[in-house]
Design a protein that fits this description.
The protein is mainly α. The chain contains 3 helices and no strands. It has one domain. The longest helix has 18 residues.
């Protein structure tokens, strides 16, 4: 069965989040950091360079021009939250 475009995007996002949780940030070179920041923007905002696009985030509270450049500490925090204990999922009851 072929996956829908939405399913493919979700799988791609999960694969990237898994990769991010395991990458050794100390091994990244300058160019790798640029790519990592662009990939995070793509993951979160759906565009690699949101700072050039002057539009509102779909949630309405964040303007793309207000995004600052993330440093290593930010990515360490992101890694830590990805690796954290997963929250239990409540089962739907009929």
């Amino acid at each position: 069965m072929k996956q829908s475009a939405v399913q493919e995007k979700h799988i791609k996002n999960l694969e990237w989040a898994f990769w991010l949780s395991r990458v050794n940030l100390d091994d990244l070179r300058d160019g790798d950091w640029i790519n990592l920041r662009e990939d995070l923007n793509q993951f979160v905002y759906g565009t690699k360079q949101p700072h050039i696009q002057n539009k509102q985030h779909p949630g309405g509270s964040l303007k793309f021009t207000s995004i600052h450049v993330l440093d290593k500490k930010h990515f360490e925090d992101i890694q830590s939250s990805i690796k954290g204990k997963p929250e239990p999922v409540n089962e739907m009851r009929h």
